[in-house]
Design brief:
alpha+beta; Structural Genomics Hypothetical 15.5 Kd Protein In mrcA-pckA Intergenic Region, Chain A; 7 helices; 5 strands; elongated
Length: 150
């Protein structure tokens, strides 16, 4: 059930999630923490966390419709993995979109320590993958690790 909840929350398919889990398991450190850090490093999630989109599903659509840039290049792959120092911005032509303007105007004041937002440039910087205690979702990642370890 926990795996299903996380898959739905981040908008992923079964095979995508399984591949991400195996990638997390291959990294040094705690597998559950690595999994959540990889999920937070997805482009669609960063767009959502920065407040460019009001939901993860809307963020996925903005990325898919080529409204988002990474380091100045248009990227239309929602599962794109961000690296430390990547700059996520709104494409110049898309800055006037009503959906983006609305999301940014109601953008919550909540800041995430692994992201920096520059309102003038309409761009944010992915500083690094977050530690487990910084991720606000109530996820029991140990249950997911136990499921895949069978």
């Amino acid at each position: 059930m926990e795996k299903q909840k996380v898959k739905y929350m981040y908008g992923m398919l079964e095979k995508q999630f399984e591949n991400l889990f195996h990638k997390a398991a291959a990294l040094p450190g705690i597998t559950g923490d690595n999994l959540l850090a990889l999920l937070e490093a997805r482009l669609d999630n960063a767009v959502y966390r920065l407040g460019i989109a009001s939901t993860r599903r809307a963020a996925r659509q903005l990325v898919g419709h080529k409204h988002i840039t990474v380091n100045g290049e248009v990227v239309n792959i929602p599962s794109y993995h961000l690296r430390a120092g990547d700059v996520v911005g709104v494409r110049e032509k898309s800055k006037s979109l009503e959906a983006i303007a609305t999301s940014l105007s109601v953008r919550n004041s909540r800041q995430f320590s692994w992201l920096e937002w520059d309102g003038k440039e309409m761009a944010g910087k992915f500083i690094n993958a977050p530690a487990r205690e910084l991720i606000p979702e109530k996820i029991t990642e140990q249950l997911i690790v136990e499921l895949y370890s069978k």
